[in-house]
Design a protein that fits this description.
The chain is α/β, with parallel strands linked by helices. Helix content is 38%, strand content 12%. The protein folds into two domains: 129 residues, Aspartate Aminotransferase, domain 1 (Alpha-Beta Complex), CATH 3.90.1150; 228 residues, 3-Layer(aba) Sandwich (Aspartate Aminotransferase, domain 2), CATH 3.40.640. The strands form three sheets. The protein has a seven-stranded mixed β-sheet, with helices on both faces. A three-stranded antiparallel β-sheet has the order 9-10-12.
Length: 389
Amino acid sequence: MTKTTGGEAHRSDGGGAAPGYAYLDAASSEPMHPAARDTLLAALDAGYADPRALHNPGRNTRLLLDNARAVVAGCLGVREDEVTFAPSGTEAVHLGVLGLLTGGARTSRRLVHSPVEHSAVLQAGAWWTHEGGTTHPLDVDAHGRVAPASVAHAVAGGAGVVAVQSANHEVGTVQPLAAVYGAAGDVPVFVDAAASAGRLDLPAGWSAAAASAHKWGGPAGVGVLLVRKGARWRLPYPSDDRTDPRVCGFENVPAVLAAAAALQARLAEREEVNARQHALVDRIRSVVASEIPDVEVVGDPVDRLPHVVTFSCLYVEGEALVTELDRRGFGVASGSACTASTLAPSHVLAAMGALTHGNVRVSLTRDTTGDDVDRFLAVLPSVVASLRP
């Protein structure tokens, strides 16, 4: 991957695909940021020891871990003691949701959540019902946005936690978190910020939140759990004797450092990258809607993530679209972004009342160029036409 220079980006293949291949699935996983790669390689020789140990290598590793925590806290605008590094974004989500539910179980065992949450939240809710809890889905509009009135109505019947994402991982719609916080009242709110961290600020008002480093250009295997000081949160699993009581297991300190470096670098370039991606996505939305018949472009056209656009094509299988576009040199996603391996119909689109058939999610990397988008749009209409009966 080549760094951007003068506002122009180069190479969108992440260095792992054939020359000229345009990887357009950053919402699944962003190619590693150069800052993360450099930091990871340097940290492998310095962050190997147990950060609990009293010997010199252990103390050095603990300093590195604490430094990463401080960087992430500064980037996300939280206290250092509110940051926990988990083994994955999914684990961070599970800890956030179930920790709040466990901590407030005496008040209510009911999880209120939007129906467009990532599967990690939905699976946490399913697990919670096996433990004697209940769940309640909220209403969303045609863009996938939560109705605050639905939140207020749901919590009036009793709730232990309200779970609403910061922005949707499939269609990009930004949720009205400030209004959700107000509607939730005294009920703790969990926010899945995996899709937006590094791209958008996280509005204050949450009790716990989660993010995933590989979504902003850090390495996979690093999740971030945020627990607001004073929140009623309790570890829902067996405990460990590690340095951070909120998570079990040995921290991958080199990967954590790389994740912090990527987040810091991402924030430094955010204004330029967001503006460029917004313009490119606007172009995709416009061309798809005007040049391909029987297509529905979904998600809010304005109040959205800068890099995500999803559209559904009638009379075409999503798997066939992905396969043919891949053959033409473009990597996109289809089906539910939560269960892409099975290409199951998207529960997000179903909740919105949108077409679930033949959907494609295009999500731009920090290095996606205008030429990449132009080439994609040049072949897309013919690909769709060739696959229709």
